[in-house]
Amino acid sequence: MSESSSLQHKPPYGMIAVLFIGAFVAILNETLLNVALPSIMEEFEVNATAVQWLSTGYMLINGILIPASAFLIQRFTNRNLLIIAMTLFTAGTLLASLAPTFGILLGARMIQASGSAIMMPLLMNVMLTAFPVEKRGAAMGTFGLVMIVAPALGPTTSGWIIEHYSWRMLFDIVLPISALTLIFAIFKAKNVTPQRAIKLDVISIILSSLGFGGLLYGFSSAGDKGWDSPYVYGTIIIGVISLISFTLRQLRMDDPMLEFRIFKYPMFALSSAISIVIAIAMFSAMILMPIYVQTIRGISPMESGLLMLPGALVMGVMSPITGKLFDKYGARTLAVIGLTITIVTTYYFSKIDMHTSYANLVWLYTFRMFGMSMVMMPVMTNGLNQLAMKDNPHGTAMNNTLQQVSGAIGSALLITVMNNRTESEATKLAADAMANMDPSAAQPSAQAAAEIQQQIINEAMLHGINFTFFISTLIATVALILAFFIKRVEPHHVDSAKENVAVDPAKVATE
């Protein structure tokens, strides 16, 4: 069956709806627990390093399994994969809700992650298979609602729940939704994606796990342990060596686990580069805003989450609209406008001070999210459109993996920039305070000295946050420059019987 003919049937909206709900709760669950970590530390009497593994471990499992999703999607039916993914996620959620010890809770999170890691690539691949190219923009725009809104809603939702209920309620709310999704998948899900009889290369799995897992762990730990920690540079070195070995092995294989040759297509390679840069820039607000709002300004976690809620809602509303605009105008126009808005608002974030009003922060953050809503999915969809259907699993797996890795790297780099700038500014402010002190004046009381010290710390941290937002502005500018090279893709259709016929990728991209 040819690629074009496979798209003539009516899209399986029921199957897509099940995948949407499953992916939404899976991604929501990734950020849902962050606000609850202090409560979990108190109940199980564990330190911050241990409890952070509830988030780090979840991300690591995603980083290990997502690259393997290309193999899974090609080898097994989408129905069976969906049922397995939702079974794992539901079982993990139930176990987490009842967990009597921290070890069991951590294990439950790992089980959850093993299910959620399959959901995103599976959903993207089903949508690429189910919709013709001229309608993919609107479809993927709706998909963007899941990818962007779910993690943004996590902190707000969990902040309200933690204020009123136990942290276990976070899992109790997700459990019935995931269970109903599983039941619906068992009875209603249909097969959409084609299968191929390919074999799993165990060495590739090991190298992929060490490569992506090492990079994710190393960069994620850098902000906490410091770059001079052997746990950090050791795992990064292992990750880099394993990833190079994994890549070389894939390029030598006729049927690779993850196809790196898709980067020969210029628009896919460009979309991947832009997505990496955007992911790094996007993490600046996600990391820096809670620090500024809660630590420096003393605003409650609940109000901090509410500050980001309008931005999440705007992205949710804009995602389907952006998808339709993409179908009409292409990715370049949307990306240039969206990145311009993102750059301007990020620059204004580098100018916030101790007296910036809550309302101004809400508006600034909301407009920034509005800009980003016009970039992510159009750029990604334009790149995926250049791939043949047989390469869709590899394209979706590669995109999701690169976002995970670039997010971890971006977080580590931005935290490092902020900490270094904060330390240097604190030293400078302390020296200035000492120089301006009158030697003949009475020494300040212990309380007054503590207040002065706290003021210096807050001012230094604010300076570090401002500088990091400025660096993020420069990073986003790189994405804007790259966006001018985007060309609208005229996809090729490859017959499944002729999948190995060479296609000149340079001829696929047209103005």
Automatic annotation (TrEMBL):
Family listed: Belongs to the major facilitator superfamily. EmrB family.
Taxonomic classification: Bacteria, Bacillati, Bacillota, Bacilli, Bacillales
Domain Major facilitator superfamily (MFS) profile: 15-491
Protein name, as recorded: MFS transporter
Highest rank taxon of the organism: Bacteria
Source organism (scientific name): Virgibacillus oceani
Keywords assigned: Cell membrane, Membrane, Transmembrane, Transmembrane helix, Transport
GO cellular component: plasma membrane
Membrane topology: Multi-pass membrane protein
Compartment annotation: Cell membrane
Gene Ontology MF, one: transmembrane transporter activity
Residue ranges of the TM segments: 12-33, 53-73, 80-105, 111-131, 143-162, 168-187, 199-219, 231-248, 268-293, 305-326, 333-350, 362-380, 465-486
